[in-house]
């Protein structure tokens, strides 16, 4: 369900003026504006129009979702993030498709913050990162250009987690796959760099 234009403008205004200082005030404002009926729309807006293109504000938006404390919104934001990631992973991975690679990287970082960074697992049925890297390796360099930076960005949040930091077996199994990939002679230099930065 899509809210009226006036209501959408109020939501845009709240997000445009959001900061760490006024977070609880803005959370109350947003709750008053959206009620229960527009939770899905807000989740979609947050993921598609904010998180996917504004990586510098990921921590702010993640904290805002927490401050709102609306369980249905939190789960819808995560679901919407997975949905968008899957769309991008299925998209045409042509050489010139740089914007999709950037969106995927941004959503990878965002997903990591929402899940691993908050000690919530990424279930295999939602996204199998290890299988994704293997599959990309089979498909070749063009696929790896999407999958390696995305995977690295997801795993970045493990450093903030009490559960998913080293020596967590799930994390280490994906790190081992990336380390193996790093040993490949024909792997593009900037993909090796992505893996090194993650390590």
From TrEMBL:
GO molecular function: molecular adaptor activity
Matches recorded under InterPro entries: CNOT1_CAF1_bind, Not1
Protein's UniProt name: CCR4-NOT transcription complex subunit
Location(s) in or outside the cell: Nucleus
Superkingdom of this protein's organism: Eukaryota
One Pfam family in the UniProt entry: CNOT1_CAF1_bind
GO biological process assignments: negative regulation of translation; nuclear-transcribed mRNA poly(A) tail shortening
Presence of keyword Ribonucleoprotein: no
Domain named CCR4-NOT transcription complex subunit 1 CAF1-binding: residues: 3-199
GO cellular component: a single term: CCR4-NOT core complex
Transcription regulation among keywords: yes
Organism listed in the record: Elysia marginata
Signal peptide: none
Major location (coarse): nucleus
Keyword terms: Nucleus, Repressor, Transcription, Transcription regulation
């Amino acid at each position: 369900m899509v809210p009226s234009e006036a209501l959408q403008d109020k939501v845009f205004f709240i997000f445009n003026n959001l900061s760490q200082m006024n977070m609880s005030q803005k959370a109350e404002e947003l709750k008053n504006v959206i009620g229960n009926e527009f939770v899905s729309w807000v989740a979609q807006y947050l993921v598609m129009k904010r998180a996917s293109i504004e990586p510098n504000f990921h921590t702010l938006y993640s904290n805002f979702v927490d401050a709102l404390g609306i369980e249905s919104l939190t789960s819808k934001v995560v679901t919407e993030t997975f949905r968008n990631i899957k769309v991008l992973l299925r998209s045409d991975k042509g050489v010139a498709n740089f914007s999709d690679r950037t969106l995927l990287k941004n959503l990878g970082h965002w997903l990591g913050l929402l899940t691993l960074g908050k000690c919530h697992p990424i279930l295999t049925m939602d996204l199998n990162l290890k299988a994704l890297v293997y599959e990309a390796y089979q498909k070749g360099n063009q696929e790896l250009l999407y999958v390696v930076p995305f995977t690295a960005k997801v795993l970045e949040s493990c450093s903030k987690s009490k559960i998913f930091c080293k020596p967590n077996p799930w994390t280490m199994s994906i790190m081992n796959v990336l380390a193996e990939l790093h040993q490949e002679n024909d792997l593009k230099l900037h993909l090796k760099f992505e893996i090194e930065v993650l390590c």
